Amino acid sequence: MANVTFKGNPVTLVGNEVKVGDTAPDFKVLANDLSEVTLADTKGHVRLISVVPSIDTGVCDAQTRRFNEEAAKLDNVKVLTISVDLPFAQKRWCGANGIENVQTLSDHRDVSFGEAYGVLIKELRLLARAVFVVDSNDKVTYAEYVPEVTNHPNYEAAIEAAKAAK
Fold it and tell me: Percent of the chain at pLDDT above 70?
């Protein structure tokens, strides 16, 4: 598993680490209207999956804004932001911040995504910061587990991987 810290303290990630070349694991999360969303719902598109601990924190806010901005420039790429925030909080945040190009999804109910992608922080029941790119055939083409949860991901590398994926 990836070694990750939160504010300098080591944390335990639950689940399986996802690597480039793997078939992307399925998951079940909730959209802002409480409907269930799975990986299959975006089949046929490249998916850039941005994982954040909580949308209401500074780095998570900046990460989601950055990918929202980039999403408008990416053809055939669905940008998904997944956290354990409640769908109501995600919807409020998106509305208040004019976020229209990213779909926010909540893993609060089952932590299905967190366990499937190995980003569930056992001690906090939050998701570790990570970015995955999944191609239209469900192959993982990029995986970044950010070593320190309070740091930013490598935006440029993730965006280039999304552009390169088919």
Answer: 100
Which residues, including other chains, have CB under 8 Å from residue 88's CB and lie 6 or more apart?
A: 32
Alpha helices in 47-99 (DSSP H): 58-71, 87-97
Q: Can you state the percent helix, strand and coil of the chain, rounding each to 5?
A: 25, 30, 45
Query: pLDDT (tens digit, 9 = 90+) per residue, 38-83?
Result: 999 999 999 999 999 999 899 999 999 999 888 888 888 999 999 9
Residue type, 91: K
Contact indicator for 114, 130 with CB cutoff of 8 Å: no
Residue 150 burial by CB count (10 A; 0-12/13-18/19+): exposed, middle or buried? middle
Helix orientation angle between 58-71 and 87-97, rounded to the nearest 10 degrees: 60
Among 4, 39, 46, 60, the active-site one is 60
Query: Does 60 qualify as catalytic in the annotation?
Result: yes
